[in-house]
Amino acid sequence: MAKDYYNLLGVSKNSSEEEIKKAFRALAHQYHPDKKSGNEAKFKELNEAYQVLSDPEKRKKYDQFGASFEQMGGWESATGGAHWEDIMNAFRQGGARAGGNFGGNEFAGFSFDIGDIFSEFFGGRASSSSMSGASRSRSSRGRDIEIAIEIEFLEAVTGAERTLELKKFDKCSRCKGNRAEPGTPLITCKECGGRGEVSQTRQTILGVMRTSGQCGKCGGEGVFPKLNCKHCNGDGMERVAKKIKVRIPAGIQNGEAIRISGEGEISENAARYGDLYVGVRIRSHHKFKRDGDDIHSSELISFTQAALGDKIRADTAHGKVELKIPAGTESGTAFKLKHKGVPSLRGGGEGDHYVTVKIVVPERVSAKAKKLLNELKEEGL
Ligand SMILES: [Zn+2]
Ligand SMILES: [Zn+2]
């Protein structure tokens, strides 16, 4: 089941950043695991929701495609995992001891500002990631890749598959990402003793914080290659072309994106891949119009068919379907063909197809028809 982050935080979809922040603070305060009333699972969930909704870009993606992102692997790895660990570590090492409890302002600053506090400690290391926690280099993900594709109207109804060719940074094929020339050792960093972290104590708005930060010398790796890999020059990565098959689920809406977990670029330390987002644009159809999971179209009928009733064959996304036109049908009448719409992406059946009939009045009629029509006219029709 998809998680409703708005629901979790008890805010509406239109809430401002400020309202979301406020709601999160209140709930996080209530459920903080160090408190008696605490609930770590709940707290973690709240944090996950907040990490998405407080980030305009992630929030946009979530709004666009929340439930289906879940289906394709979930937000969990994008928002929880290591990032979560960073926050908890910072808590336990710094804030928790400094503040004692999280009843006041100590708490208020913790999650949203922790990145800023760390970057204040350890300087502005170039990073495209918003995460600048102490153990960033070990836990950071590679860059996400976003691409857009176009599919046909009917492909959105039946589902489709595409093979995409991506150019991206992947693990170096020679050193497998460990940066050293094959057969040569990695040597331990003396600066941090191989831990990849150095400790610091600082006075901050949260009180005295003892915290560990990434070792600047080894970039948090704890080790150096004795001899850099000749292929990647010690970067651990290389640019590759990769083909990837993407399944587009039946029922996808125009503008939605599919997230493929782990198909983004590798992180700088070759530890974790980012994700691939495939934005889908649906081409319009000459006959069908979509409205959510319903499809609308129109069919032309003659005025005699309308007057006397008939059976016609109406086009649907699932092929032609027989449609009974009752006698005395007016132009513009819509008929519902149940379950002939688009399968629901969220599960639970499919939409319907509505056929609107339009009566065509002939521009020219034969002499015989004219005679008959004149008789009808005399009948008062
Ligand atoms: Zn290499
Ligand atoms: Zn080091």
From TrEMBL:
<dbReference type="InterPro" id="IPR008971">
    <property type="entry name" value="HSP40/DnaJ_pept-bd"/>
</dbReference>
<feature type="binding site">
    <location>
        <position position="189"/>
    </location>
    <ligand>
        <name>Zn(2+) 2</name>
    </ligand>
</feature>
<feature type="binding site">
    <location>
        <position position="229"/>
    </location>
    <ligand>
        <name>Zn(2+) 1</name>
    </ligand>
</feature>
<keyword id="KW-0677">Repeat</keyword>
<comment type="similarity">
    <text>Belongs to the DnaJ family.</text>
</comment>
<dbReference type="GO" id="GO:0031072">
    <property type="term" value="F:heat shock protein binding"/>
</dbReference>
<dbReference type="Pfam" id="PF00684">
    <property type="entry name" value="DnaJ_CXXCXGXG"/>
</dbReference>
<dbReference type="InterPro" id="IPR012724">
    <property type="entry name" value="DnaJ"/>
</dbReference>
<dbReference type="GO" id="GO:0051082">
    <property type="term" value="F:unfolded protein binding"/>
</dbReference>
<feature type="binding site">
    <location>
        <position position="215"/>
    </location>
    <ligand>
        <name>Zn(2+) 2</name>
    </ligand>
</feature>
<keyword id="KW-0862">Zinc</keyword>
<dbReference type="GO" id="GO:0042026">
    <property type="term" value="P:protein refolding"/>
</dbReference>
<dbReference type="InterPro" id="IPR002939">
    <property type="entry name" value="DnaJ_C"/>
</dbReference>
<dbReference type="GO" id="GO:0005524">
    <property type="term" value="F:ATP binding"/>
</dbReference>
<dbReference type="GO" id="GO:0006260">
    <property type="term" value="P:DNA replication"/>
</dbReference>
<feature type="binding site">
    <location>
        <position position="192"/>
    </location>
    <ligand>
        <name>Zn(2+) 2</name>
    </ligand>
</feature>
<feature type="binding site">
    <location>
        <position position="232"/>
    </location>
    <ligand>
        <name>Zn(2+) 1</name>
    </ligand>
</feature>
<protein>
    <recommendedName>
        <fullName>Chaperone protein DnaJ</fullName>
    </recommendedName>
</protein>
<dbReference type="InterPro" id="IPR001305">
    <property type="entry name" value="HSP_DnaJ_Cys-rich_dom"/>
</dbReference>
<comment type="subunit">
    <text>Homodimer.</text>
</comment>
<keyword id="KW-0143">Chaperone</keyword>
<dbReference type="Pfam" id="PF01556">
    <property type="entry name" value="DnaJ_C"/>
</dbReference>
<comment type="function">
    <text>Participates actively in the response to hyperosmotic and heat shock by preventing the aggregation of stress-denatured proteins and by disaggregating proteins, also in an autonomous, DnaK-independent fashion. Unfolded proteins bind initially to DnaJ; upon interaction with the DnaJ-bound protein, DnaK hydrolyzes its bound ATP, resulting in the formation of a stable complex. GrpE releases ADP from DnaK; ATP binding to DnaK triggers the release of the substrate protein, thus completing the reaction cycle.</text>
</comment>
<feature type="domain" description="J">
    <location>
        <begin position="4"/>
        <end position="66"/>
    </location>
</feature>
<keyword id="KW-0346">Stress response</keyword>
<dbReference type="Pfam" id="PF00226">
    <property type="entry name" value="DnaJ"/>
</dbReference>
<dbReference type="InterPro" id="IPR036869">
    <property type="entry name" value="J_dom_sf"/>
</dbReference>
<dbReference type="InterPro" id="IPR036410">
    <property type="entry name" value="HSP_DnaJ_Cys-rich_dom_sf"/>
</dbReference>
<keyword id="KW-0863">Zinc-finger</keyword>
<dbReference type="GO" id="GO:0008270">
    <property type="term" value="F:zinc ion binding"/>
</dbReference>
<feature type="zinc finger region" description="CR-type">
    <location>
        <begin position="159"/>
        <end position="241"/>
    </location>
</feature>
<dbReference type="GO" id="GO:0009408">
    <property type="term" value="P:response to heat"/>
</dbReference>
<feature type="binding site">
    <location>
        <position position="218"/>
    </location>
    <ligand>
        <name>Zn(2+) 2</name>
    </ligand>
</feature>
<dbReference type="InterPro" id="IPR001623">
    <property type="entry name" value="DnaJ_domain"/>
</dbReference>
<dbReference type="InterPro" id="IPR018253">
    <property type="entry name" value="DnaJ_domain_CS"/>
</dbReference>
<feature type="domain" description="CR-type">
    <location>
        <begin position="159"/>
        <end position="241"/>
    </location>
</feature>
<keyword id="KW-0235">DNA replication</keyword>
<feature type="binding site">
    <location>
        <position position="172"/>
    </location>
    <ligand>
        <name>Zn(2+) 1</name>
    </ligand>
</feature>
<keyword id="KW-0479">Metal-binding</keyword>
<feature type="binding site">
    <location>
        <position position="175"/>
    </location>
    <ligand>
        <name>Zn(2+) 1</name>
    </ligand>
</feature>
<dbReference type="GO" id="GO:0005737">
    <property type="term" value="C:cytoplasm"/>
</dbReference>
<keyword id="KW-0963">Cytoplasm</keyword>
